[in-house]
Design brief:
The chain has 130 residues and is mainly α. It is built from 4 helices and no strands. It is 68% helix and 0% strand. One of its GO terms (molecular function) is zinc ion binding.
């Protein structure tokens, strides 16, 4: 898979573009929905300090979700760049081909499963000392 066939190249190009379009739509909807609801409700209901704190916490959680989506969009754009450069589908760490099944599940991945495991390190259970 170091070199994608023209048909496969086109399939992954479409997959990346569709995933990016869907993520942008979700992000846009989330921002407009939360902003619209926030502005509509913020001044209508008197709030005490506790209510205000809860609203701030919910707002922060919404921003965290938006940041996760923004990061995924950045990764999708990088994957599109790699696709155009001809390096898409090749592990950036070991140079081996990344399986099509993995690319379909995580189209922006930069590593094969083995290298991804090495990069992330072993999982530590709760209460495990570092």
């Amino acid at each position: 898979m170091a070199e994608l066939s023209p048909g496969t190249h086109s399939e992954f190009k479409d997959l990346l573009a569709e995933r990016k379009r869907r993520l942008w739509a979700e992000l846009r909807d989330e921002i407009f929905r939360s902003t619209g609801e926030s502005l509509a409700n913020q001044y209508d209901i008197p709030q005490d300090v506790g209510d205000s704190s809860i609203l701030d916490m919910l707002s922060d959680a919404g921003l965290a979700v938006a940041d996760i989506r923004r990061e995924e969009l950045t990764q999708l754009e990088e994957a599109q760049r790699r696709l155009e450069e001809g390096t898409y589908g090749k592990c950036e760490r070991c140079g081996r081909p990344i399986g099509a099944q993995r690319l379909n599940l995580v189209p922006f991945t930069r590593y094969c499963v083995s290298c991804q495991t090495d990069v992330e390190g072993p999982a530590k259970g709760p209460g495990t000392k570092l």
